[in-house]
Write a structure and sequence with these properties.
Chain lengths: 245, 316
């Protein structure tokens, strides 16, 4: 069932001088799944997104999107193929209105873009801000707009980098609902997230990245019980298992 | 949009009637004002829209001036020479844009500044073609009348302003602004940033090229320093920032303010306008960083509510 896989990385590497941020990452995202990507700070999660999305062009290895190699393509080409991503720190266009933020991300020549944009804005209850500038929004609203923006091209796969970080509970709820909704419509999702409840709730399977390597994968309960994961997250305290002191 | 169009039409009409009601001195002033509008709007197209601040757009003006002067001397009609000036400036801008637009922020600005110096140096040293530092004096017999030059300049100013108006209403304009706001994020939502920047850059050279030629006919004499003029680069930047970069009317307002202050003061206080404009610049940058026009933009009332209503209906 090879064609069941929408995104695959094979032996993906990224070296920053001495720092090996990715050391041969093999990862598969199944079509219409919500796949989780977790790992301690600095384990290489964002770097993986940077390389896969074409923003970081220093990666080596293979990245297949719909069986097509995409390593080396420009970000806008990858986006137009249907692979979109959001950033760990929100990057709305501060000087453009909410509507413009969405319109610019639509497919060129798409006559339904305006309608689609207004529909998306309405869906997350930001209508009163439709003409506000990106810079006039709260941080949580900005994150939401950044998310809506990439939905404009009806992507087949979305990479979300800690989408709920810095977002208040109300908006956070809207956000997760939206993730479920678009997933229900057939969009595959790969999420970086630190909140384990969200991961347990939303993601299957889950990949665990540590120091640039995938150290575990599977459903959340399997991964959570994996001793390598415990070690990566909790270090020596867990490994020693209470035998000291 | 409709307001912009009406306002534009009225201004063009007034400008078109000006030769009837003015003496040569006044018409000459208006010509210079329109020339600056044409240049400021061209600069606005690349730098105001994308944020790639060019400190060397006078290079296209200079190339246009020399092309126009030389072709006129060679026997071409003035309007054909103006066309060639635009074409050659644009043809030059394409490879230059491809090279320099890889640079960001101050590096791009400096590269363009350097380019203007290259232009001036070439014009100075290529004596066989340009008569070097002596400059080119055009014989009055060849030159179009002041009115003709005036209307040609008016045409260029209108064209440049119209271009901004049209671009602002298109997806291309939105893409250029997204590049200004956050180029990486723009690329990540499907904007082919390289293509957009190069197109905008090449387009921003068309009118300076033509304007250079018309300017040569207007002054009847050009030399390297007068057309590859460093001060012209500063003026384009200052006028657009003063009025409001990336807007339709901002550059026009900036030009009118700068030219009026200069005109009103230079006879009695030859250097006072520089001090006044410097002070004004500082005030605007401190209190209205988006330019004078941003005062109007603060009030976005009725249009917003209508759009919000439409949005609520779509969101059902
Ligand atoms: N541009 C860069 N230059 C040099 N080193 C970098 C660069 N980007 C990331 N790194 C390094 O690569 C490693 C992985 O960083 P990355 O941002 O991918 O981690 P992360 O898993 O996303 O962490 P976090 O959970 O804190 O967001 C870190 O050691 C980081 O310092
Ligand atoms: Mg990260």
């Amino acid at each position: 069932m090879v064609d069941d896989i929408i995104l695959e990385t094979r032996g993906l590497r990224r070296d920053f001088g001495g720092v090996q941020a990715l050391r041969g990452v093999n990862l598969q995202v199944h079509r219409t799944s919500i796949t989780g990507l977790i790992g301690p700070n600095g384990s290489g999660k964002t770097t993986l997104f940077q390389v896969v999305s074409g923003m970081d062009r220093g990666g080596n290895g293979k990245v297949l999107f719909n069986d097509q190699p995409i390593l080396g393509l420009r970000p806008w080409q990858i986006y137009r193929l249907g692979l979109a991503r959001t950033f760990q720190l929100s990057r709305v266009f501060p000087g453009l209105t909410v509507l413009q933020n969405l319109l610019v991300a639509g497919r060129p020549g798409d006559r339904g873009a305006r309608k689609r944009a207004l529909g998306l804005i309405g869906r997350v209850k930001l209508c009163e801000h439709v003409n506000a500038l990106g810079s006039e929004l709260s941080y949580g609203q900005q994150r939401l707009v950044e998310f809506l923006r990439v939905l404009m091209c009806n992507p087949a796969l979305i990479l979300l980098d800690e989408p709920a970080a810095g977002v208040n509970p109300t908006l956070r709820h809207i956000l997760w609902e939206l993730v479920r909704h678009i997933n229900g419509l057939g969009t595959s999702v790969l999420i970086i997230e630190h909140n384990m409840n969200v991961i347990a709730d939303l993601c299957d399977p889950v990949y665990v990245l540590n120091e640039g390597e995938i150290i575990a994968q599977g459903d959340f309960d399997t991964v959570r019980a994996d001793p390598r994961v415990l070690e990566a997250y909790f270090g020596r305290t867990q490994r020693s298992g209470g035998t000291t002191s | 949009m409709r307001l912009d169009l009406s306002l534009g039409l009225i201004l063009v009409l007034l400008a078109a009637l000006a030769p009837v009601a003015t003496n040569d001195y006044q018409l000459s002033f208006l010509l210079q004002l329109l020339l600056m509008v044409a240049l400021a709007q061209s600069w606005n197209l690349i730098s105001g829209m994308t944020g790639y601040v060019s400190f060397g757009h006078a290079v296209f003006f200079g190339v246009g001036a020399y092309t126009g002067a030389l072709l006129l001397v060679a026997g071409h009609s003035w309007w054909a020479a103006v066309g060639w000036a635009a074409l050659i400036a644009t043809a030059l801008a394409l490879p230059i844009g491809l090279l320099t637009l890889r640079l960001h922020g101050p590096y791009f600005a400096i590269a363009m500044l350097g380019l203007n110096e290259v232009g001036r140096t070439v014009a100075t040293l290529w004596v066989d073609l340009t008569e070097g530092g002596d400059g080119i004096a055009l014989s009055p017999a060849l030159l179009p009348a002041l009115e003709t030059n005036y209307y040609a300049t008016l045409f260029l100013a209108v064209l440049a302003t119209l271009a901004i108006g049209v671009v602002l209403g298109t997806r291309f304009g939105l893409e250029l602004q997204a590049i200004r706001e956050d180029e990486g994020a723009a690329e990540m939502v499907g904007v082919n940033t390289t293509r957009d920047k190069v197109i905008a850059f090449a387009a921003s050279a068309v009118i300076p090229g033509a304007a250079g030629a018309v300017y040569a006919y207007y002054t009847s004499f050009i030399d390297p320093l007068s057309v590859f003029l460093p001060a012209l680069n500063i003026q384009m930047v200052a006028m657009v920032l003063l009025g409001g970069r990336g807007t339709l009317w901002g550059p026009v307002i900036g030009v009118v303010i700068v030219m009026s202050v200069r005109e009103l003061t230079w006879a009695e206080f030859p250097t006072l306008h520089l001090a006044l404009l410097g002070a004004l610049m500082i005030l605007v940058i401190l209190f209205l960083p988006e330019g004078i026009l941003s005062v109007l933009r603060k009030r976005r009332g009725p249009g917003s509510t209508r759009l919000a209503e439409e949005c609520r209906q779509q969101g059902e």
